[in-house]
Design brief:
This protein is of the alpha/beta class. Helices cover 29% and strands 25% of the residues. Strands 3, 5, 6, 9, 10, 17 and 18 form a seven-stranded mixed β-sheet that branches. Strands 13-12-11-14-15-16 form a six-stranded parallel β-sheet, with helices on both faces. A five-stranded mixed β-barrel has the order 1-2-7-8-4. α11 links the parallel β17 and β18. α4 packs across α5, α4 crosses α10 and α7 runs parallel beside α8.
C-alpha cells in the first residue's frame, strides 16, 4: 500500500530547503518501511547544504535517525528475524552488504557495495516520488529528515526498545563515530593520555569513549565555553577553552597541561583525535602527539582540502596517522552495544542533546551549527506506539 511522508528536500547548494509532502512506495524484497521517530542534525548534512560536498539534488536529507518498523518486504523475516512491525531500529548511513572483500575482512564501514547506495536514486531503488511521479532520493539511503522511509533491511538495526528515540538517533552517527574512533580505530588503552580537538556531538562522544576506555588523562578543547563545561561534566579531566586562530598558543597550553598532569614528559599526548575537520586543526593535532603517538582524524573537511605535513619530522618521531570512518564500526554490532551501555548508565548520550526541534526548525539548527552553538539538535518526529 502506498503511503506519504513529509520530508526536507535538498534542491542543490545555494537553494532554499523545502518541506514537501511526498509519496512513499511499499517496501520491496529485502526492504522495510519505517516511521521516523527522531533525527539528529549533523554537520554532514550541513556540508551538503553549503556545497562543501557534492551530492545530487532532489534528495530527502538526514542520515542520523531512529525509527519504528511499520512493514516488511519479502524475504526479510527469513534473513532478519528481529525486524518485525513495532521494532525500534537505529538507521545506518552505510548498510554493509556482507559479501564484498572489505565486509569479509570485518570492515563493514568500508563496504564496496552498500545496500541501498547512491542515495536510492537508481531506478530500481527509488521508493519516494512527488505527486507527478518524479523521483526523490534519500540521503545515504535513509533520509531521516523524512517522517517515513523505505530502507534496506541491512540499514535498520534493532536495539533495546527501552532506548529513548532521541538517544537511538544519535547512536546512528555521532556516538558510533566518536566512541568507535576511540575504541575501534585508535584503540586507546587504560592509562593513556587523550586530547580531543572540537566538542560537537562527535567530539563529545570521543570524550565519552575515552572515559569508557579508561584513559588516564582526557584533555578536551573547544572555543565555546558551554561545550568545554559539558566535556568536563562528561568525564574530561581537563577541559580547556581555546582561542580561535591561535595554534601556537593552543599547542603550548596543551603541552603545559599534559606536563602538569604528569603525562607530558615526551612532549605530547599518546592520542590526539581531531573532530572538527579543518586543515589547521589537523596540522595542530599532529604537533600535539608525542613521538610514537597516534593522531586519529575523525572530522570531515570540505572535499579537496589538504593539510600540510613535515614528513621528515613525522617519520623521525615515528607517529601514526589514522583515518576513522564511522568509528571503524559495524552498525549491526555497534548499535545494540552502545544502546546497552546507555541503558546501563555508562554512556550518557542524552546529555549531547542541546535542543529538541520540529522539522521546520532544521534550517535554524544549521545556522546554529555554523556559529558553533550547541552539541546536537534533534528533530523529534513522533513516539513509538
Amino acid at each position: 500500500m502506498t503511503g506519504t511522508l513529509r520530508g526536507l528536500v535538498f534542491h542543490g547548494p545555494g537553494r532554499p530547503l523545502a518541506i514537501e509532502t511526498l509519496r512513499l512506495d511499499p517496501p520491496g524484497p529485502g526492504e522495510v518501511a519505517v516511521r521516523m521517530l527522531a533525527s539528529g542534525v549533523c554537520h554532514s548534512d550541513l556540508h551538503v547544504v553549503d556545497g562543501d560536498w557534492t551530492r545530487p539534488a532532489d534528495i530527502v536529507l538526514g542520515h542520523e535517525g531512529s525509527a519504528v518498523v511499520m512493514d516488511i518486504g519479502p524475504g526479510v523475516p527469513e534473513r532478519f528475524p528481529g525486524l518485525v512491525p513495532g521494532a525500534l531500529v537505529v538507521l545506518a548511513w552505510t548498510a554493509p552488504c556482507g559479501t564484498c572483500t572489505p565486509c569479509l575482512r570485518g570492515e563493514g564501514w568500508q563496504c564496496a557495495r552498500p545496500v541501498g547506495a547512491g542515495h536510492r536514486l537508481s531506478e530500481d531503488l527509488v521508493r519516494v516520488h512527488r505527486e507527478d511521479g518524479s523521483p526523490v532520493g534519500t540521503y545515504s539511503g535513509i533520509g531521516t529528515f523524512g517522517s517515513a522511509q523505505v530502507v534496506a533491511a541491512e540499514a535498520a538495526i534493532p536495539v533495546d526498545p527501552r532506548t529513548p528515540p532521541e538517544v537511538a538517533a544519535l547512536i546512528g552517527c555521532a556516538v558510533t563515530t566518536g566512541v568507535g574512533a576511540v575504541l575501534e580505530t585508535a584503540r586507546v588503552r587504560p592509562g593513556e593520555s587523550v586530547v580531543v580537538i572540537g566538542l560537537g556531538g562527535v567530539g563529545l562522544s570521543v570524550v565519552m569513549g575515552a572515559v569508557l576506555a579508561g584513559a588516564g588523562l582526557i584533555v578536551a578543547l573547544d572555543t565555546a565555553r558551554e561545550k568545554v563545561e559539558l566535556a568536563r561534566s562528561l568525564g574530561g579531566h581537563v577541559a580547556v577553552r581555546v582561542l580561535p586562530d591561535d595554534p601556537a598558543g593552543t599547542l603550548a597550553l596543551v603541552r603545559a597541561t599534559l606536563e602538569r598532569a604528569g603525562h607530558g614528559a615526551e612532549g605530547g599526548a599518546d592520542h590526539v583525535l581531531e573532530c572538527i575537520g579543518r586543515p589547521a586543526t589537523v596540522e595542530l593535532a599532529v604537533d600535539m602527539a608525542r613521538p610514537g603517538g597516534t593522531v586519529t582524524l575523525v572530522g570531515m573537511t570540505p572535499q579537496g582540502e589538504h593539510a600540510r605535513l613535515d614528513v621528515y619530522r613525522f617519520v623521525e618521531d615515528g607517529k601514526r596517522l589514522l583515518g576513522s570512518n564511522y568509528g571503524s564500526s559495524v552498525p549491526a554490532v555497534a548499535f545494540p552495544r552502545l544502546a546497552r551501555l546507555h541503558l546501563e548508565g555508562r554512556l550518557p548520550i542524552e546529555r549531547l542533546i542541546t535542543e529538541r526541534i520540529e522539522l521546520d526548525g532544521v534550517s535554524e539548527a544549521f545556522a546554529a551549527m555554523r556559529r558553533g552553538d550547541g552539541a546536537r539538535r534533534v528533530v523529534v518526529h513522533g513516539r513509538p506506539t
